[in-house]
Each structure stands twice: as C-alpha cells, then as structure tokens.
Design a protein that fits this description.
single chain; about 675 residues; alpha/beta; six-stranded parallel β-sheet; about 15% strand; globular; DNA-binding
Length: about 675
Amino acid sequence: MHLNSQQQAAIHLIDKPLLVLAGAGSGKTRVITEKIHYLLKHCHYLPEKIVALTFTNKAAQEMQARISKKYKDKSTEGLTVTTFHSLGMNIIRKEYAALGLTSRFSILDQIDATHLLRQLLLDQQITFPVDELQQQISNWKNQLKTPEDLLVQAKTAGEQRCAKLYLAYRQALQAYHAVDFDDLLLMPVELFDKSPEVLLKWQQKIRYLLVDEYQDTNLAQYRLLKPLVGKEAHFTVVGDDDQAIYAWRGAQADNLIKLTEDFPNLEVIKLEQNYRSTQRILKVANKLIAQNTHLFDKNLWSQLQEGEKVRVIANSTAENEVTRVVQELVSHRVRFNKPYHHYAILYRSNHQARVFEQALREQQIPYHLSGGQSFFAYAEIKDILAYCRLLINPDDDMAFLRIINTPRRGIGTQSLQHLSTYAKTRHTSLLNACSEMGLSTYISGSSLRSLAQFGEWIQHLSKNILQETTIEPLQKLISEIDYNGWIQSNSKTPASAEYKQKNVQDLLNWMQRLLTKETTPDLGAVIQRLCLLDMLSQTSQEDIANHVQLMTLHAAKGLEFPYVFLVGVEEDLLPHRNSIQTNNIEEERRLLYVGITRAQEQLTITYAAKRQRFRTTYSTKPSRFLDELPTDHIYWEGRGEQRNPEEKKQTGREHLAGLKALLNSDV
DNA sequence: CGGTTTCGCTTTTTT
DNA sequence: AGCGAAACCG
C-alpha cells in the first residue's frame, strides 16, 4: 500500500522531536510500525534501543502483532512494545534498591488497594467513601503530589484528613513492600528526578522512543517521558486531541501543547487523509466533533466512496433495541455473507453488554466480549495469585489476609484482630508474626495452632520457590489445600465450578508459558508481570476470528470494523449522567466521535425510549448529540415518536414491538 | 467460628 | 438483577 507524503515525512524525520497529529483512520499505527522498520533498516538502530509505548495492553499487543507480521525473521528481537505501566515496572524491577524496595515487591491491583484503604479507614474509625478516597489518591499520585506537600497545602479539615490517609496508605504500601498501579509511573519519575546517574543509564538504553495515543498521557506519564528522551529528544509521539477520552484518569490532552513549548524544535506533521470510512460516515463524525473546542485545527477527508447514510434507529424499549440490532446483524450477514468479526456492537458502559450477550447466545451467534470484568478480578485468580505473592513476599499482608481463610482454616475475625495488633507491636508482617512465640499471649488454642501451622507451611514452601522453573510446586500447593474442592463447595452450579477450575488451570498454563519465555526463569518476575497483563485483553486471533465484537467505546479506540452498531445513544448514558453533572460534555462527544469513526462501511446508531435501571423502568431521551449530526447524511427511523409515546403513529414494526412490550410488562 | 440470610447499593470509562 | 457486606443463628 502506498504511503502519502505526510506519512512518509513522519516516518523519515528522525533527527528532531516529532509530533504527529493523526486523525481517526489516518494510518497512524502504520506510521509507527513503518517508522520502526525505517529506524532498524535504514538508520541501523538496534532493536533493543527502541521503545514503543502504548496506553493499553491491547494496543501494545496489536502493535506487536503488526510488527511481527511484517518481519517473519528475528530482526526485531529485543524491541520493546509495551504500556507505560509495564515500562515503569521494568524500571522499578531494575532499580528497586534505590527505591527502598526488595526485588520481590508485590503489585496491588485496584481491588487490593481498595481493601487496604477500607482497612485503613476502619482502623482510624473514619467514615468516608472508599472509592472517592481512592480516586483522590490516584489523582494526587498522577499529579505527582506527595502527602507531605498536601498536608501543608490543605485548607479544609477534610482535605487535611484525606492527605493524612494518603500518607498512611503510602506507609502501609511501603511496609508491605508493595506498589500500586500509580506507583509504577510515580516511582520512576521520582527516581529520575533525584538520581541523574540512573537516568543516564536509561537514556542510553532507550535511543528512540515512540508513543501512541499521546493525547491520553497524564502528568506522571509526561514527566516519565521527558527525562527519558533527554536533550537529544529522539522521539515521535502520535496523537489526536479529538480522541482524548481519558481525562477522568488524569490524562491531559494539552500535553500536546506542552510538547510544543518544551521542545522548541519540535516538528508537527498532520495526517488528515482518512483511509477507513466512507464519505458519509466521516462527514457525520466531522460535523459532530466540530461542536467541540480544539487544540489543533484539522480537516479530515476521505477519497473512499460516499457510502450509505448513517442510520439512527429509535426503539420503544431497550429490549426491542437489542432484538432489532441482532436482527439487523443477522439479516445483513445472510444477505452479504460477511464473517461475524466484521460486526461490532459498541456501548458506553459495560453493563450494557449483558443483554446483547444473552440475545446473541440465544441466536447462537458467536461473540467476543472484551473488557468488562478483568480476568484478575475473578476471585479464584486473585486467590491463587495471593498465594504466589505471599510465597515470594512474606511482608504482603494483603495477600495474607486474602488467603488465610481460603480455604477455611478456622481463624476468625477475633484472632485476626489479635494477630494484627501483635504484629504491629512487633513491627513485623502478619505471616512472620504467626511463627513468633509471643503470639501465644494474644491467641490461644486451635486458632494459635492453625496460624502457626500455616506460617510454617508457607515459609517451608517459599524456601525453594524461587529456584523453581516450573509451576509444579504451585500445582502441588493447589491440590494440598484442595482448592478445587473449595471451589466446588462455594459454587452455585457445577458449571460455574468447572468454569472457575478452568480459570485456575488457564492461569497456571499461562504462568508456565511465561516461565519458559523469560530469559531468567523466575517465578517472582512472572507473577509481577502477570499482575499487569490481563488475560481478557490478550485477545488471540482465534478469539476474534468470526466472532461479533462487543466492547465499550473506550476499548474500541484504535480498532476498526466494517459494520458498527452504536447502541444506547441516550441522554444519561451517552453523554453519561455523571458527565452531564460535572459538565464534561466535550469528552462524551469525543467518545461518540471515536465510536463513529470506528465504522468503515456502515454505521447504525440506536436508542430506546424506555430503559430499565435497577428495578424501575425510566423514560429516556435520545442523546443531544444526535441533533448535532448532519441531517442529509443520516436516515432517522422513528424520530420524534419517543417524545410522545401515547400519541405516536406506529409503523407496523413499532406496533408489534409495542405490543410485545405490553405483553412482557404484564408478566 | 462458620454458614446462611437479608439488606442495600449499584452502573462510567482502565492501568 | 446481582453482588458484597452486615447481621443473625446454630
């Protein structure tokens, strides 16, 4: 395929820092992969000196796949394609000593962190919404604010209290030799700030840096990037402010502007030709996004055919919306004989997927759901990983608490309270406290024996665990605690028990795979790596092949599909109610823009006039964004009818649908 | 201490 | 509707 002149310019410019403003579908991933090729083949960069950063694991995988497809040989071996967080983890793994950690640090995911915070609140007898606190701390970390600064700055008593909790949280993490997701960015930044030698080492290691989806970087990521590229500033970042959809996570699209300020010799290249969508889809997208303010002007155009009008379909109820979409999909497929993976159903939030899943399953249509519940959020996976974490890091109290009664060991909340107070006075971890003599003054009888036995058992197992190069000892552990039995007795149906057991086996197999791949087989490294990966985002080609794709708008970024259904385009859903309240309409508009620009040939937007939330049915209004679309490029079916459901003139199909809803509501 | 039941709250998006 | 936490009972 031919490269246009802007694309070529972006690929060949290497002696200056470069910002590529790449509109949707303008071939930005292609530019990155071609540029890596160019760096390797024409500029003789060593692959291990090149780092390409993406935002999500999925994107990293996608890029890795594109690159290895291009090179069948081993010439790209050593090339790094990862997420910011993984890069941060690698830096911490190498520099743990300078950070006051052991090499066996644990990585807490969001759920673990929530538990820890809840415990802290409980200990200090403070009632405060945990989620809010966690969000606040995460924001602070991403803005590189230390608790010390915040304590000084705090104006209100409330802020003061939050800052204190932040401090306590950080101290707890330190005591556990644990880091959370935000630390993976924060710690390297702090390290580079204070240690020029370490920074120099990493600057020499990374000679060329490429960043995808740059508009989604937050302050911590920017501050990691900036010292790494140093004065030489050999980097290419690719971004599009119209696709900035992660502000809620601290991303600031004006990092694009900051770049032009911080690197005066920055070159800016715009990619404005779209190779993905039909004229009409593109015009609809452009008209929508024109309502937003922009950092950079951009005029996206396409040479492809005009295509069909974008369809907007009103439905009387959410159930009818589902039926309609599935029916449209099936009939289209029958008519044009396209594979299922050419179809995608996109929605604002995960819970919307459920009804579509059901309908697709009923129709025996293969589908693949990405995102949603993380593989690592499954209790059985977290249990096994907690055992692993405790084996390599005896100070990981979070892991200890998770598994001390999984399966049951007859240790109740009282005993755990005592154990915890004892451990605190002894300044040691819960696991270590188990085998100390002094514990007997706090706990007695069967609980004491149970704890001692558990401590001894774990310590015995952990002795040799790091030398192991297979998962065999873990298999043994799982059978020793009869974990499968535990799963069975805790599952409602045999099918769900089987599913959980399969999950555990998948996890073990995955570990084994990683163990054989790792240059130095080390269970510790494998487990740390696992905590950042996510099995569901590790979508293999077989998973996608001939499956209808179900995903959130966020997850869909960077992807494209011939036929797209954008569902639930209603007020309170898209734009989301919270965003309306916080007045973040522009980001919601960008989200819809991202959704629209995923479509290559045909786009169908749907909404419903009635939708269930929790237990009650609510009337809904079509999204305000629909009125912003160019009327001559859309075909709006059932427009206006939902405003006055009583009086509406029903079409045959609508009438039937209404009857069906009536029948259903009586049941 | 452990199992069962009830209650209450939830649904934004992800590393 | 579905899940986790608290409350309650054996």
